[in-house]
Task: inverse folding
């Protein structure tokens, strides 16, 4: 609960905001026909500047700081709170003050509560996803969805951004454009440390503020689920696999002491032609027949992630390469890196460090996916090309289809491995990478004799071989 001193100082500061609006209204009256919100948006920065220079604001900062010096990082945080809480929008001359004061005091109390989990949403635009897929798709802590323009405007608190933090705002034309796209929405919660005084707590809340949006492990985890889906282009695409370039990424936090960060520019969805008409189809748009598998992948990967040294080697060591390959921009010298990262994913899943590893990787991949000799030869070509690229001896010409093949092999291998490792986890078996490869090596030998393999598939479940040693 807020102390009496903080509550009284905050109340005085809110009254000062209302008083400033009344004073300005005499100079800039609200004429009939003028939109109220426009009038408020024009005056709000002036009211904020005057309030932050007032004795009432200074007294509020002192009350929060325990009578410490006014010029502290927390004074900037308190100024941000007044902006982000909506105080400068709500306390205009025509507002009902008692109700608004109660709401704002509750917000201050909520934001200063300790311990508290600070929630952050990351909105990642996916300009490559076709609008034809069935949405929304929920997976607990993340989801695929679309936004109407007013909903997106509200979700990112764009009015506050536009008035007080214009370098972080999204212009109306871009909002309309982005409202046509599919979004990945990721939620992340971070618990604040207990036992901090108010000043230390506010300083903690703003201690990591760099003004730059960075991807977090939580976002990377969500993208790792996304790249496992069997995405297919709606049209045949010539050239390199285009990947899944990310559009703008917007961070929205419920920490009202922290000013917003600018969205990353990303790749805007190509939804309009030169004359401004909506484009119904795009040559690099992807669709997925079973996008609901996203929740299933998340469930299984979340289970594996608890065992990093055994069954969890897949999400820990393999998926990061798939994400990196998918989010590279193939139009800006990314083609080579895409192939290399897809092969690195296969290496992380099926490779070893002993001589002859390339041959064994092909055999294991053939066993895992049931590839025939022609497909195994294609794997050899991909792996040879990767080696030439890495060792500085690239071939004169690379077939763009190679990038599509590398992507599909890496994705399918990861999905099959996920199913197998999760199956063993349900069976109570913790299988590390070495044991997983040993299983594939044994199955690879049997695979050469179809009769033996057919019999192996009928092995009685009650007599499973011991693979733990």
Result:
């Amino acid at each position: 609960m807020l102390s009496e001193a903080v509550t009284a100082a905050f109340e005085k500061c809110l009254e000062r905001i209302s008083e400033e609006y009344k004073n300005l209204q005499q100079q800039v009256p609200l004429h009939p026909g003028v939109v109220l919100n426009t009038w408020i948006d024009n005056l709000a920065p002036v009211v904020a500047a005057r309030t932050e220079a007032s004795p009432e604001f200074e007294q509020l900062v002192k009350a929060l700081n325990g009578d410490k010096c006014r010029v502290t990082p927390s004074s900037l945080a308190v100024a941000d709170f007044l902006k982000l809480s909506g105080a400068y929008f709500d306390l205009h001359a025509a507002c009902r003050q008692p109700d608004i004061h109660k709401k704002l005091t509750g917000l201050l109390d909520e934001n200063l509560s300790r311990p508290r989990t600070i929630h952050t949403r990351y909105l990642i635009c996916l300009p490559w996803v076709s609008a034809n897929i069935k949405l929304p798709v929920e997976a607990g802590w993340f989801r695929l969805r679309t936004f109407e323009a007013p909903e997106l405007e509200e979700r990112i608190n764009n009015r506050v951004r536009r008035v007080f933090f214009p370098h972080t705002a999204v212009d109306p034309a871009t909002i309309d454009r982005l409202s046509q796209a599919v979004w990945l929405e990721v939620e992340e919660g971070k618990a604040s440390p207990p036992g901090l005084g108010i000043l230390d707590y506010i300083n903690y809340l703003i201690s990591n503020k760099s003004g730059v949006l960075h991807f977090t492990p939580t976002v990377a985890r969500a993208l790792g689920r996304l790249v496992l889906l069997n995405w297919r282009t709606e049209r045949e695409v010539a050239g390199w696999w285009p990947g899944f370039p990310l559009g703008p990424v917007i961070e929205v936090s419920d920490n009202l002491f922290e000013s917003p960060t600018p969205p990353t520019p990303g790749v805007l969805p190509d939804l309009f032609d030169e004359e401004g008409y909506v484009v119904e189809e795009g040559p690099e748009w992807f669709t997925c027949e079973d996008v609901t598998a996203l929740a299933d992948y998340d469930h299984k990967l979340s289970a594996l992630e608890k065992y990093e040294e055994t069954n969890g080697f897949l999400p820990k060591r393999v998926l990061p390469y798939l994400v990196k390959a998918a989010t590279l921009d193939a139009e800006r010298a990314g083609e080579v890196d895409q192939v290399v990262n897809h092969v690195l994913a296969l290496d992380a899943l099926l490779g070893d460090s002993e001589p002859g590893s390339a041959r064994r990787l092909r055999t294991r991949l053939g066993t895992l996916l049931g590839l025939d000799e022609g497909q195994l030869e294609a794997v050899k070509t991909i792996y040879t090309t990767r080696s030439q690229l890495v060792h500085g001896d690239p071939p004169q010409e690379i077939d763009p289809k190679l990038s599509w093949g590398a992507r599909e092999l890496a994705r399918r291998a990861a999905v099959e491995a996920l199913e197998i490792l999760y199956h063993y986890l349900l069976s109570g078996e913790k299988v590390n990478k070495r044991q997983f490869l040993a299983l594939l090596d044994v199955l690879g030998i049997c695979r050469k004799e179809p009769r033996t393999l057919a019999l192996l598939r009928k092995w009685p479940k009650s007599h499973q071989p011991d693979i733990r040693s």
In short: The chain has 19 helices and seven strands.
